[in-house]
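## tool: complex_structure
## caller: assistant
## args:
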Amino acid sequence: MEISTQEFKHCDLLKVTGRVDSATAPEFSKTLEDINNNGRFKIAIDMSELEYMSSAGFRALLATQRNCKRYNRGELVLAAVPERIREALELAGFTELFRTFENPLEAVGSF
Amino acid sequence: MTWRRHLVLSFMPSYTFPAKFEFLDEIRDFVAEVAREGGFTEKTIYSLQLATDEAASNIIEHAYAGIPDATLSVACEVRGDEIVITLQDTGRPFDPENVREPNLKADLSNRQIGGLGIYLMRKLMDSVQYEANANAGNTLTMTKRRV
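## result:
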């Protein structure tokens, strides 16, 4: 797993590539927490090159969405979600908790 | 008929992995390789990898919590039109049946963070069976038909 972050005026764009599982989720989770700890709560995640995500990654998404939406201060949105990962998110009942966009540009533009 | 079960298991390609999250990659690769050879679709292979990952993660996190240098064995075999994946460990018995299903209708603030892995295992596989044995340890057997 590799993560890169880009700070825009209205939001942060985080690109996660490779595989997020129980081994790598803590780092994924920490990156999201760090963004929140910097007082930034509008986050878009670019998943275009994400190969795999287990429930360990889903938990990080859920915890971050909770933190972002508290006091209406922001939101976590997803972009370019690969089909397999979207199917797993759907199975977990997660799709209704996150707005999703075709590409990162649209996701960033939504804020 | 315990001896028979062991006899069958002994013919299944099986690998022992250190019970550490760092080996989940290898466990998923092993399952994918057997499934691919067995003619399973990439979509189903992803499901098999996810279910096995969730099962192994639970063993590492719960059955072996606080136990160093533990191992788990993963066996995987295609039998006729289905794939059989077996995970064995000697940690604390952990029956997935005892884990409550998460409420997928709950709103964001009430959504449960735990129990999701087991829920996914059940949803992704055709059958999930758990057996705790004082001598042999814990065995989780999951099957999925080729579609």
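## assistant note: The mean pLDDT of chain A is 97. Residues 1 and 18 of chain A are 4 Å apart (CA to CA). Handing back to user.
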